[in-house]
Amino acid sequence: MENNEINLETTTATNKCKVIIVGGGMAGLSAAYHLSKNGCSDFKLLEARRRIGGRIVQIDIGNEKVELGANWIHGVLGNPVYELAMQNGLIDIMQSPKPHKVVAATEQGKQVPFSVLHEIYEAYLCFLRRCEEYFISQYLPPEGIDSVGDHIRLEISLYLDKIQDPQERHLRQLIFDCLLKRETCISGCDNMSEIDLLEIGSYTELQGGNVILPGGYSSILVPLTKEIPSNNLLKEHPVKKILWNKNNYNNNNAESDSDDSDITVIEDPPKATSHNSSRESSCEKEIPLHNVEVVCENGEKFYSDHVICTVPLGVLKHKAVNLFEPQLPDYKLEALSKLLFGTVDKILLEYERPFLNPNITEVMLLWETEVAKADNPGELNDSWYKKIYSFTKLSDTLLLGWISGKEAEYMETLSNDIVVDVCTDILRKFLNDPYIPKPKNCVCTSWASQPYTRGSYTAIAVGASQIDIEYLAQPLYNKKNQAKPVLLFAGEHTHSNFYSTVHGAYLSGRTAAQILLSSDTPQEIVLNCEDTSDLSSWIQGISLE
Fold first, then answer.
1. Which UniProt keywords apply (predicted)?
2. ω before 326 within 30° of 0 (cis)?
């Protein structure tokens, strides 16, 4: 008995720390990285999976490194993930982009003239930009038009009305339909009618285009994890419960204590003690009470003063009511319900030999009829594949197909053999070649079925707004006049401008760490405006420390 008690004490002691980070995706790793870089090693990162990286994961298919999740670094200027990759030699700046030739084919196997494809693509981009302009303009859309899908379809209708030839009009309609399906994979939704028209412009697109890391996106995890003590990172520790208010403070007051989404108002802040520096990191101080208890599914318990929750929005939508004790404030639960966390899946087909024209890199699929929406998933049996908008050539023997929404979720229930047969039929039909072989290997992602993601990435649904993202980001305190929050949130779903991106997740994790690293007492912040380069870097968000 005595030995058991000693072991229990030892385990309990090692499970106490200043900060617990829940989730080892980019946001969680960023928080841990910045804590470590600033001298705070008294934290634990709990990751549910056997691996870290969250939605950053790659596999080898043949000689290719294939991304199952995040594909690109979105933008260069002001992107901290790009800066991190550059600093660690992960980007080949001498590598020239590969030529990209797209062809569009009908179900009858006829190829659309490139001039027509280019015409419709340019018109579509114009329609999309008009949707984005509502966010920064004072103009209101036409009455009854509240979604991106509705607005673009209105523009398409007006555009096609000017074309007299029925066949030419129909062909252009098919291209528009294909581009709208493509947009659902970009936005992360089932249908563009789900995306709020007035908010689509809230997403900030960084300049510089999309960048692919030659070593795979997972290579960005290496410079982060090498700064994190290995003992601080615990895999296979799914969290069951976060008890974040052990002092029984009424959490309904959490909203009333706040004047915005980032900072809780501190009334009569405690004065700094004379023996501590006013800018001393809180991680260096001893705080006797542990505000948080985190219970894992294996029964193991961890205790801390602060917890940073970085689990994806999809998981929060499914588990927030039971995950937190006490329950999150009503405004957070409402924000969770209003935001969208859609599904985007990939279909990877590996072949024994090349069969696609060497000059072609992508085949757009112009399906004859628009995808029928079915309330019953079983009714998608004969139509799910019509949501696949194209196949892209990753190599001569490797093709990538994209699919989103309900159809993607339905595909996740199918066997690979069925997916192989369907995709082979599609390629034979659209390329008008009955001899196209079956692939020797097929890999399909299943982000909606994964218990630790429950989807792909965040979008602002009709009726939601940036404010809902800011509400999710707002940290929570368990008593008034408290210097630092007890419960903080990070993840791409908490960044109001960069939601759905890896750099949004990175920045949110950095922000959470900075809040806990700041002084325990409010400080006057002075900006030296003479040094405009520092201010510019701060605005662009490229500082790594």
1. Cytoplasm, FAD, Flavoprotein, Oxidoreductase
2. yes
**pTM for the full predicted model:** 0.87
Token match 């079925």: residue? 449
| 496/492 Cα distance (integer angstroms) | 9
Distance CA(13)–CA(18), nearest Å, equals 12
pLDDT digits (tens), the chain, 545 positions: 334 332 323 335 579 999 999 999 999 999 999 999 999 999 999 999 999 999 999 999 999 999 999 999 999 999 999 999 999 999 987 777 778 899 999 999 999 999 999 999 999 999 999 999 999 998 899 999 999 999 999 999 999 999 999 999 999 999 999 999 999 999 999 999 999 999 999 999 999 999 999 999 999 999 999 999 999 999 999 999 999 987 654 444 444 444 443 443 323 333 333 333 333 445 644 444 578 999 999 999 999 999 999 999 999 999 999 999 999 999 999 999 999 999 999 999 999 999 999 999 999 999 997 555 556 666 899 999 999 999 999 999 999 999 999 999 999 999 999 999 999 999 999 999 999 999 999 999 999 999 999 999 999 999 999 999 999 999 999 888 889 999 999 999 999 999 999 999 999 999 999 999 987 655 544 333 434 334 343 334 433 33
Sign of the four-CA dihedral 248, 250, 251, 257: negative
Cβ-based neighbour number of residue 384 at 10 Å: 24
φ/ψ (deg, to 5) at 408: -65, -45
Tell me the HSE value of 544 on the side-chain side, using a 13 A CA sphere: 15
User: Maximum Cα–Cα distance for the chain, whole Å?
Assistant: 90
Amino acid at 189: C
Q: Where are the domains of the chain?
A: 2-54+218-338+462-540, 113-202
d(CA 365, CA 422) in angstroms, rounded, equals: 14
In Å, how far are 124, 131, 466 from 139, measured between CA atoms? 20, 11, 18
Sequence letter at residue 353: R
Q: What letter does residue 49 receive in the DSSP assignment?
A: S
Q: For the purposes of burial, counting CB atoms within 10 Å of the CB of 479, is it exposed (0-12), middle (13-18) or buried (19 or more)?
A: middle
Q: Which residues contact 110 (CB under 8 A, 6 or more apart)?
A: 432
Counting every residue written for the chain, the total comes to 545
For residues 377 and 227, what is the distance between their CA atoms, to the nearest angstrom?
Answer: 46
Candidates 3.20.20.70, 3.50.50.60, 3.40.50.410, 3.20.20.140; CATH matching 2-54+218-338+462-540: 3.50.50.60
| CA 50 centroid distance within chain | 20
In the block, which residue shows the tokens 């792909």? 456
Q: How far is Cα 221 from Cα 85, in angstroms, rounded to an integer?
A: 10
- Whole-number Cα distances in Å, 365 to 109, 389, 414: 10, 5, 21
